[in-house]
Prior knowledge:
Blueprint: H1 10-17, E1 25-29, H2 36-48, H3 62-68, E2 75-78, H4 89-99, E3 109-113, H5 121-132, E4 138-144, H6 152-155, E5 159-162, H7 168-178, H8 184-193, H9 198-206, H10 209-224, H11 230-236, H12 242-262, H13 271-283, H14 286-304, H15 311-323
Parallel strand pairs: 1-4, 1-5, 2-3, 3-4
Helix pairs in contact: 4-5, 7-8, 7-9, 8-9, 11-15, 12-13, 12-14
Amino acid sequence: MNTDLYPWQTSLWQSLAGRSQQAHAYLLHGPAGSGKRALAECFAAFLLCKAPVQQRACGQCSACKLYAADTHPDLVRLEPEEEGKGILIASVRELVSKILQTSQQGGRKVVIVEPAEAMTIGSANALLKSLEEPAGSTVFLLISHQFSFLLPTIKSRCVLQVCPLPSTEDSVQWLQQQRPELSAEQCQTVLALASGSPLNAQKLLDADVLALREQVVAGVKQLFKQQSSPSDLAQAWAKIPQELLFDWFCQWAQLMLRYKVTEDETQLGLPDMRVVLKHVASRAALTALLETQDWLLEHRQKVLRRVPLRADLLLESLLLRWQALLPR
């Protein structure tokens, strides 16, 4: 189990490990790809370590070796049984039963909940008493990518620690260290596609996102030239992650609205879509742009929540709305 911090997490680490007295529950929240999981793993290892050195887990004691092998008996993970599903009440009850038992290593017990927003109302309520009055020396570490989705009662029982994205300069520097073959300009482009997250940028590079971006941009241009229909493009984009598509279209809608109001061409984003966005924003009605943005944001949340929707029909609806922005 990796317990390395990212370079931009030094101050965050001090605010956690440097506390004179540890709290019983922490909520690490911030944008996806900001390194919250790495921070939680490092903090959990530190809390379980028998002989911390300079506010870090020693890496040598029996607890650290068990943690590194992901076999520490006093570390419990609460997560969905399937990716994209909710955390079940039964899973919470099983967790509560475990933390009521005596620590097997004679120290703390640590519970990592990820993603915390995957808890249903029922499972969140089932966890509340344990969060407020944890058994023994139990410490809860909740990780959330969607802070607004959490119940206020969950938030109020935790020490809140926001985990922001690093600066563009720090992100580019880190990304170039991971990908020496990339120029600073290429790193900035991928970071823009990843909404500023260097970790997500690295994932996008692994998924050859630049090629996917070219495919989508070409498709949008063909749509407005009536060279491709919404249904054709929906089929052609079937294997492109919906989260990626909705991120791009939400961003484009926001850029068009900004240009519609300011007529500032420097606000039109990356060069590959500037001409298209300016053309559409100049001709579309403001109300149509606002309605399109609202629709995109609403359905992006459904995609993020893994609401069961037919991908082809969803993309076709998106493209029909996009096509309708230009008056005929």
